[in-house]
Amino acid sequence: MRRTDKHIDYSEDELEMAQFAKALGHPVRIKILMLLESQSCCFTGEMTAMIPLAQSTVSQHLKALHEAGLIQGEISPPRVKYCINRKNWAKARNLFGKFFAEKSAVSP
């Protein structure tokens, strides 16, 4: 197989969808998003009570979701409050919805 040195141009939507998909790539992150979507906000300590993992592990997953822009946080030491980033959450749902709708329209 031959490799190519050609640059691939990706659209902004493709790059964002890949970033969202990477953040969604772990079941704990899906669980966190489901919890946050069902309420307005949640403190990290409350999440560790609902998700039986070490706080440091939950924090790592929160960091990945935050970096992808799917959640936002408010730091009030010693507590951190997280909630869904409604704008980016809607964008992710729209991008994936269009992607799967287009793919299912092509499939038999």
N-to-C span: 30 Å
Q: What is the CATH level 1 assignment? A: Mainly Alpha
Low-confidence stretches: none
Q: In sequence order, what are the helices and strands, one letter per element?
A: HHEHHEEH
In short, what is this structure?
The chain is an alpha+beta fold and 108 residues long. The protein has five helices and three strands, in the order ααβααββα.
Your description of this structure?
Helix content is 59%, strand content 13%. It is an alpha+beta fold. The chain has a single domain (13-97), classed as Orthogonal Bundle (Arc Repressor Mutant, subunit A), CATH 1.10.10. Strand 2 and strand 3 (79-84) form a beta hairpin.
List keywords for this structure.
single chain; 108 residues; alpha+beta; Arc Repressor Mutant, subunit A; three-stranded antiparallel beta sheet; elongated
Topology:
Elements: H1 12-23, H2 27-37, E1 42-43, H3 44-50, H4 55-67, E2 71-76, E3 79-84, H5 86-106
